[in-house]
Design goal:
Elements lengths: L1 H7 L2 E7 L2 E8 L1 E6 L2 E5 L6 E5 L2 E7 L2 E7 L2 E5 L3 E6 L2 E2 L6 H16 L5 H24 L11
Helix pairs in contact: 2-3
């Protein structure tokens, strides 16, 4: 019985961007993309802070997964609350695939240009990571997403 109670516990998630609250609500599980790889988080998790890299954030609720693309940022994780702060976040249906592919091409070209400074190359590398994350999430979820209107 105690195991069933634990399985039904939720953790509250807030995903914040400079533009405001992107998502907030209770979920069964969150998977974030950190510098050390993916981290799965459920209620009762040990408190920690994780540096996030551009990639997918997955939210699980009632057995259903919903993914979103996010840029770099950080996550403050507690046993009952996760606060994720990122520069940008997008649901798959908000991602313009052609625009993301064009951004990847531009960043890749800038990265490989011999005239690009070290600072510009670093900026281009981040652009490549962001564009790849957006493309991956859009292609993985957008076509089959039953959540085109939003929400989990």
């Amino acid at each position: 019985m105690a195991e069933d109670q634990h399985a039904s516990r939720t953790i509250y998630v807030e995903i914040v961007t400079p533009y405001g609250m992107f998502f907030e609500g209770p979920v069964d599980m969150v998977v974030i993309t950190s510098k050390d790889g993916e981290i799965g988080i459920m209620a009762g998790h040990t408190p920690m802070i994780a540096a996030l890299t551009p990639g997918e954030i997955r939210l699980k609720n009632d057995g259903n997964w919903r993914g979103l693309a996010a840029t770099n940022g950080y996550a403050e994780i507690g046993p009952e609350l996760i606060i994720i702060v990122v520069n940008a976040a997008e649901w798959p249906e908000q991602i313009d695939l052609a625009r993301a592919k064009a951004a990847l091409e531009r960043a890749d070209k800038r990265y490989h240009d011999s005239r690009t400074s070290a600072q510009e190359r670093n900026h281009a590398r981040h652009g490549i990571e962001r564009a790849k994350a957006r493309i991956k999430v859009q292609q993985k979820y957008a076509a089959s997403s039953p959540h085109a209107a939003g929400g989990i």
